[in-house]
Write a structure and sequence with these properties.
337 residues, mainly alpha, 16 helices, 1% strand
């Protein structure tokens, strides 16, 4: 085993990048999910839904900036390959995030005649960002192959990832709201659970067929036995969501948080399975972590900045959620546009 800095530092930055992207998917995933569910709510419920993510959504995107920043400075070769191959979906995602940001502020200030337009743009921006992220994940898993099978695989994830975000968003609303909106969120969660589960099973089955590397990592012995806890735990979490959403009295008793926590667990386990499938590649079958890494002296310099930045982001995130935790209240701003 190589314990030199040239071997260890790329792994450290890979872990930081993975943590940042996982935090982004979970944290920004639920507020993207709330945006996706917005068209199915009444006008008053829309205000409560946007209020529930109001203090958090902008800060959640900090994790995306951190993850992409680490990719750029610590793994420049991989950054060039990934961003070049994903230029179009990245542009779509950024346009969607811009639409969300503009709509978030203007929908609250808008006159009644314009408010519906901003609500629709907020939902559209959420859909664009979620679908683009799904396409990027599918393209990444196929090694940016442009064949028909790979394209269909990427399209499948682009169409199904929003259901996972919508389930996260419904779980968030169950925790943050009450009364009629909470019951509606329970129904949304129960509706989204099945397409999300089908998508997860489909991706799990298709990934080994798309990539020989993934197939070899999962279906070799004894690794297959050792990895069984991941799909088993996902199945248990899936059942927990089904059980709670099928019994409104359980939610009324204060256990609605199980929906959100179980969905987060599914995302975390899926991420761990993906990380295991890809290691040691940062671009599957093309570029390992060490081949893509910057020079060791550069990584030392970058490490100092990350050692300051990462704890600050974690501390701020924890502080923000502690301060603004509790039931959502209606947002209000002065002025109309």
């Amino acid at each position: 085993m190589d314990f030199t800095w040239a071997h260890i530092l790329p792994l450290v930055f890979m872990a930081v990048m993975g943590l940042a992207l996982l935090a982004y998917v979970v944290l920004d995933g639920y507020d993207l999910g709330v945006g996706l569910l917005l068209p199915f709510a009444t006008d008053d419920e829309k205000d409560a839904m946007v209020s529930s993510i109001g203090p958090f959504w902008d800060a959640n995107e900090t994790w995306l900036v951190l993850g992409v920043g680490v990719l750029l400075v610590a793994f420049p070769l991989a950054h060039g390959i990934v961003l070049s191959a994903l230029y179009l979906p990245v542009a779509v995602m950024l346009i969607g995030l811009v639409l969300r940001g503009v709509s978030f502020d203007f929908r609250v200030k808008a006159r009644a005649a314009h408010k519906m337009t901003w609500n629709r743009l907020f939902a559209l921006g959420s859909l664009m960002a979620a679908a683009a992220q799904g396409w990027m994940l599918g393209s990444y898993l196929t090694g940016f192959d442009h064949g028909l099978r790979s394209t269909l695989f990427s399209l499948g994830i682009a169409l199904t990832l929003p259901t996972g975000y919508a389930l996260l968003g419904a779980g968030w609303l169950i925790m943050k709201t009450g009364d009629a909106l909470q019951l509606r969120a329970v129904r949304w969660a129960r509706t989204m659970l099945w397409p999300m589960g089908a998508a997860l099973v489909g991706i799990s089955l298709a990934s080994p067929m798309i990539s020989q590397t993934v197939f070899d990592r999962w279906f070799s012995m004894p690794q297959f036995i050792g990895l069984l806890p991941i799909p088993v735990a996902c199945a248990v979490a899936f059942y927990a969501v089904f059980h709670v959403t099928s019994r409104p009295n359980v939610v009324a008793a204060g256990y609605g948080w199980i929906v959100f926590a179980s969905t987060v667990l599914i995302f975390v386990l899926s991420f761990l399975g993906l990380a295991y499938s890809l290691y040691p590649y940062i671009v599957i079958d093309r570029l390992t972590v060490w081949q893509a890494a910057s020079a060791t002296k550069s990584l030392f310099f970058i490490f100092v900045g990350v050692a300051i930045t990462l704890p600050a982001i974690i501390a701020y995130t924890i502080y923000m959620y502690r301060v603004f935790w509790g039931r959502a209240r209606e947002l209000s701003y002065g002025g109309n546009y």
